[in-house]
Design brief:
Residues 54-229 form the ATP phosphoribosyltransferase catalytic domain. By secondary structure, this protein is α/β, with parallel strands linked by helices. It has helices at residues 11-22, 57-62, 73-79, 83-86, 114-128, 139-149, 165-168, 183-187, 215-229, and strands at residues 3-8, 27-31, 38-42, 47-52, 68-72, 87-92, 98-105, 132-136, 154-158, 174-179, 190-201, 203-208. A hairpin with a 6-residue loop joins β2 (27-31) and β3. Residues 161-164, 177-184 line the site of 1-O-pyrophosphono-5-O-phosphono-alpha-D-ribofuranose.
């Protein structure tokens, strides 16, 4: 069998992942039609390409269905509570940098910190009869972060995209999402809490600690890792 390398099948991470490997003499390419999720690996023996959603790569690594995978630190930490038992970080790739942050409406003049948010949340509940809503797709990381900060009077609402729009759409009062240039936050009149940084993320190459390997795959892995360290 061959060593399975999972990479994002589209979007901002795919092309940069391909060129990162290219610079190391490993050519990843998509094969078939534009829409077909098939690919190949040239320049090294015994490695096959698996094209996956960036969000599914953590789970595939943890289940041992792929041996290596490229995805963001944020997605690994969010989806795998025991990530360091299941995966090992091989190399940060130097792109896909983004910060997971908490942001509130820029017009909330007296809310700049988590303590302020906590106070605003209590007032909000008294006034509106329901808890202040924070929209996010990072449920686990946000809950853990807010618990550690002593903020409890809120509710998470699920948002799988266009999260910054939820405040304008009145489905949430605050958001927790990834920011890179900050443009989406600015365009949606949101500001980051001064102590609202939850996690710094970047695209990273991970190795599964649990994927079974035969002797051929083991030797392919050794060669692969050696190539990357050159
Ligand atoms: N604006 C950005 N700049 C840089 N990196 C970003 C940005 N937004 C998201 N990312 C990173 O890109 C990675 C993939 O995010 P994305 O939201 O595209 O994943 P996904 O929703 O699982 O993808 P898919 O739509 O294929 O399921 C994440 O690790 C994330 O941190
Ligand atoms: O700080 P910026 O450079 O503006 O980037 C941040 C935005 O990029 C991502 O969204 P994406 O483009 O993936 O769209 P989505 O929200 O629909 O997932 C992220 O969820 C932010 O919305």
């Amino acid at each position: 069998m061959s060593l399975k390398l999972g990479v994002p099948s589209k979007g901002r991470l795919m092309e940069k992942t391909f060129s990162w490997f290219d610079k190391r003499g490993i050519t990843l390419s998509r094969t078939g039609s534009d829409r077909e999720y098939a690919g190949r690996v040239d320049g090294i023996e015994g490695v096959s390409l698996v094209l996956l959603s960036a969000g599914e790569i953590p789970r595939e690594l943890a289940a041992g269905r792929i041996h290596l995978g490229v995805t963001g630190t944020d997605l690994v930490h969010e989806k795998l509570p025991l990530w360091d038992q299941q995966l090992e970080e091989v190399a940060p790739l130097g792109f896909g940098q983004a910060d997971l942050i908490i942001a509130v409406p820029a017009c909330w003049a007296d809310v700049d910190t988590l303590d302020d948010l906590d106070a605003a949340a209590a007032g909000f509940r008294a006034r509106h009869g329901h808890r202040l809503r924070i929209a996010t797709k990072y449920h686990r990381l946000v809950r853990e972060f807010l618990t550690a900060a002593g903020v409890a009077d809120y509710t998470l609402v699920d948002s799988q995209g266009a999260t910054e729009g939820t405040v304008k759409n009145e489905t949430a009062e605050a958001i927790a999402d990834i920011t890179s240039t900050g443009e989406t936050l600015r365009a949606n009149h949101l500001k980051i809490l001064s102590d609202g940084l939850i996690l710094r993320s970047q695209a990273t190459l991970w190795r599964s600690r649990v994927a079974p390997m035969d002797a051929v795959e083991k030797s392919a892995l050794d060669q692969f890792l050696q190539r990357l360290s050159q």
